[in-house]
Amino acid sequence: MNRYKQRVSLVMAAVLLPCAVACGGGKGDSGAVSVQQPVTGIDWRVDSVTVGGTTRHAPASARLRIEEDGSASGNLGCNHFSARATVHGDRITIGGLRTTRMACGEERMAFERALARTLTTGTLTAEREAAALTLTDGDGDRVHLSRGPSG
């Protein structure tokens, strides 16, 4: 009987150990953008921008949408914009913005400048978790977004 228990224990260890190693104990979803969690074709509401450690909350009109064809558009908080965008995995690059030229209050314009600069300073790293998206530039500045009502 003792030999039988030892044999069963060895067989169970041989079966379960590879599963435990393959399954791991870490978090299953890193949050990185993937085919399962696209960023394109979604209306993103801009919630806030954090630049140099200072967070500015977005006006209700601030939006971003990136299409699969590489076009991007939205609202910076006062002015509408369009641009070209490239998405490769969790890396997003947004080219120079073409914007309308409306004037708004100083607070909105300061937010708009911070958002425009963060979106266009270079390659952004996208981290997607459920209905939230964070874009981080090379300086650590971040744009926090959430799914808009029509996305």
From TrEMBL:
The lineage of its organism: Bacteria, Bacillati, Actinomycetota, Actinomycetes, Kitasatosporales. Keywords: Signal. Residues 37-144 form the DUF306 domain. PANTHER family: DUF306 DOMAIN-CONTAINING PROTEIN, HEAT SHOCK PROTEIN HSLJ. It holds the Pfam family META. It comes from the Bacteria. InterPro entries: DUF306_Meta_HslJ (IPR005184), HslJ-like_sf (IPR038670), Hsp_HslJ-like (IPR053147). Residues 1-24 form the signal peptide. This is DUF306 domain-containing protein.
